[in-house]
Amino acid sequence: MDNEFAKHEIDYITRYEEKGFTASFIFKTEKLVETVSKNSYKPEQIFVVEERRFEGMSNPSDSSLLYIIETNDGKKGTFLVAYGPQADIEIAEFFKAIPSGNYINKK
Q: Which helix (H) or strand (E) holds 18?
């Protein structure tokens, strides 16, 4: 990123929104659902452009993961999830199921 001192999720979300990653997703029944089109995606239909981990400023166990993603039909957006003890196991399993070849780096 342009500013290596950015420490908050919103800093990265804003930067990627400026690059066109504006779609919003929710997790529902083992799929990611794009909130506008309502299209749903299985793990093999998701490409992870970047993955960033953040730790809480006052509590390091307050962690999150920010996924910058593209879908097989061209939707581009972000997905923020809790990491560590607060993590949703179903969401974690979904992202583990994304094929390793679908993790790309487009910094």
A: helix 9-18
Q: Quick one: which of 74, 73, 77, 69 has its CA closest to 94?
A: 69
Neighbours of 72 (CB within 10 A): 13
Strand-strand pairing, 76-83 and 23-28 = parallel
- Return the percentage of the chain with pLDDT > 90, whole number: 65
| Contact present, 39 and 71 (Cβ < 8 Å) | yes
SS3 state at 102: helix
Q: Tell me if 63 sits within 8 A of 82, measured CB to CB.
A: yes
Is-above-0.85 flag for pTM?
no
Residue 79 C-alpha from the chain's centroid: 3
